[in-house]
Amino acid sequence: MDAFRELHRLITGYQVSQAVHVAATLGLSDLLADGPRSVAELADATRTDARSLRRLMRGLVAVGLYVDTGDDRFANTELGDAFRNDAPRSVAGWARFVGRPFHWQAYASLEHSVRTGETGFAAVHGMSLWGYLAEHPDEQNVFDDAMTALSRAVADAVVDAYDFGRFGTVVDVGGGRGLLLSAVLSRYPSVEGVLFDRPDVAAGAHQLLAAAGVAQRCKVIGGSFFEAVPAGGDVYVLKAVIHDWSDAESVEILRTCRRAMSASGRLLLVEQLLDLSPDPVRTALSDLTMLVVAGGQERTTDEYRSLLSASGFDLTRTFATASDVFVIEAAPTQ
């Protein structure tokens, strides 16, 4: 290994992140979906400066997203094609989020978080991520798009790994726009669903659920999971929720779920696991994002076991999926 080159690649990784963010924001992969286009055509479609756009395209060619076909024309590579918004597991929504100034500025406070243990986001913006999103609805939409993109990347793997068909009603707590729940309901036509999230977030779920053809079997309810969640479900699913919160806040959320459940109910946490991750780099960096942005953390299996125990649950089984998340099943302590 050439240590200098590898270190240089690590140091300049932020440049790649921003270039890919801009590609997603401009929708370049979508514009190239039907074949090569010239820089002039792309600049006209995106209302950008052609000379600057050419330089961006040169950088994106270097990292493998696009290919220069000659005559100042560019086309998608296989990677670029997968970056289209309509690709099966597109993460373009995530790319649009991570480069937004409010998120980017927070990450610049990583050193502050390491030195103090405080969340960098609050140090920069004077409030939590959730408070900021509530005050900035445009950024809330970007964030919701990002969470939907991440759900799209793992939803099929989760439904493949766990049998939801034995339940009558699935309650998706903090379910965003309902991508995961729609995958469950599409796979199991006899199952009913309840989508629960903050009112402003839950309101955006109707369109996705209708497009999936499951709206008639799914209630959408707004509220706070710190106060109460809908009662009567057979299984309660929290995907990428608990990792956003501190231990104390996580126990509070889990106890709220426990109060809504019967003794025969089940709780499912869909999370990455530090001790079992098939992609340790991604999971470790996600943990840093929790430190800097949300104030939570990624955890080990035993750490989740402890949280669940403190909340009135016993961890019963852990299911690996074909993605980097696990389904952690828990039952009320008897």
Automatic annotation (TrEMBL):
<feature type="active site" description="Proton acceptor">
    <location>
        <position position="243"/>
    </location>
</feature>
<dbReference type="InterPro" id="IPR029063">
    <property type="entry name" value="SAM-dependent_MTases_sf"/>
</dbReference>
<feature type="domain" description="O-methyltransferase C-terminal">
    <location>
        <begin position="107"/>
        <end position="313"/>
    </location>
</feature>
<dbReference type="Pfam" id="PF08100">
    <property type="entry name" value="Dimerisation"/>
</dbReference>
<dbReference type="InterPro" id="IPR036390">
    <property type="entry name" value="WH_DNA-bd_sf"/>
</dbReference>
<dbReference type="GO" id="GO:0046983">
    <property type="term" value="F:protein dimerization activity"/>
</dbReference>
<dbReference type="GO" id="GO:0008171">
    <property type="term" value="F:O-methyltransferase activity"/>
</dbReference>
<dbReference type="InterPro" id="IPR036388">
    <property type="entry name" value="WH-like_DNA-bd_sf"/>
</dbReference>
<dbReference type="InterPro" id="IPR001077">
    <property type="entry name" value="COMT_C"/>
</dbReference>
<protein>
    <submittedName>
        <fullName>Methyltransferase family protein</fullName>
    </submittedName>
</protein>
<dbReference type="GO" id="GO:0032259">
    <property type="term" value="P:methylation"/>
</dbReference>
<keyword id="KW-0808">Transferase</keyword>
<dbReference type="InterPro" id="IPR012967">
    <property type="entry name" value="COMT_dimerisation"/>
</dbReference>
<keyword id="KW-0489">Methyltransferase</keyword>
<keyword id="KW-0949">S-adenosyl-L-methionine</keyword>
<dbReference type="Pfam" id="PF00891">
    <property type="entry name" value="Methyltransf_2"/>
</dbReference>
<dbReference type="InterPro" id="IPR016461">
    <property type="entry name" value="COMT-like"/>
</dbReference>
<feature type="domain" description="O-methyltransferase dimerisation">
    <location>
        <begin position="9"/>
        <end position="83"/>
    </location>
</feature>
